[in-house]
Design goal:
alpha/beta
Length: 205
């Protein structure tokens, strides 16, 4: 049974920064009047035997196929790994061919977010790498418009392709601009999901 509409915030995080971004995105989604469902994916391992518990010890629960299938919108996040998304997130997406076949995600809004430790660490290529499977699923990709003031003057993270964080040599968390852009992107996807859901409801009615 499908619950009330929600935006799925699906991410992989090792050091906690991407998880912090996910929390700010969730606040933006909730500002749009929708529920945010935070989910992560387990790390991949060269071991052939499953060794992880079905539920992580802390943080967001692991994502199930139904979490993704029934979402009204998607925010997908990963730290940068050599200019690409991290392997655990890629592995999870590789298991979604059944949703591609039945069009479960077609027409739903989606956006992406990432974090890097270096200024030229591949943020934009990582964001684009996450867009590609979503485009194959027929999702509607939303970026961050330049009408968001923080995008024009940020000296840390933030791109028109999606939210981002640059830690640099600092040990601190998200900057004010990064936080603002995360919330703006979450709100944008939340608004799109709500509007598209209303239109679909009107057509079905």
């Amino acid at each position: 049974m499908i619950t009330e509409p929600y935006v799925l915030i699906l991410y992989y995080s090792r050091g906690g920064t991407t998880a912090s971004m996910a929390a700010e995105l969730a606040r933006g989604v909730e500002q749009a009047g929708l529920s945010a469902r935070l989910r992560t994916v387990p790390p991949v391992s060269p071991d052939s035997e499953a060794s992880l518990p079905p539920v992580p010890d802390s943080g967001a629960p692991y994502c199930t196929p139904d979490d993704l299938r029934h979402c009204a919108g998607l925010l997908l996040g990963s730290p940068t790994r050599f200019g690409n998304m991290a392997a655990p997130l890629r592995y999870f997406l590789d298991q979604t061919s059944d949703m591609w076949l039945d069009g479960s995600l077609t027409g739903k809004p989606a956006a992406v977010f990432t974090s890097t430790g270096s200024l030229h660490g591949g943020q934009e290529s990582t964001l684009i790498s996450m867009m590609l499977p979503l485009l194959h699923h027929g999702m509607l990709i939303a970026g961050i418009p330049y009408s968001e003031a923080a995008l024009m003057h940020t000296t840390t993270g933030g791109t028109p392709y999606g939210a981002s964080h640059w830690s640099g040599s600092k040990a601190g968390g998200l900057s004010e601009d990064e936080t603002s852009l995360c919330r703006a992107l979450g709100q944008r996807v939340g608004n799109l999901a709500r509007q598209l859901g209303q239109e679909q409801g009107n057509q079905n009615g």
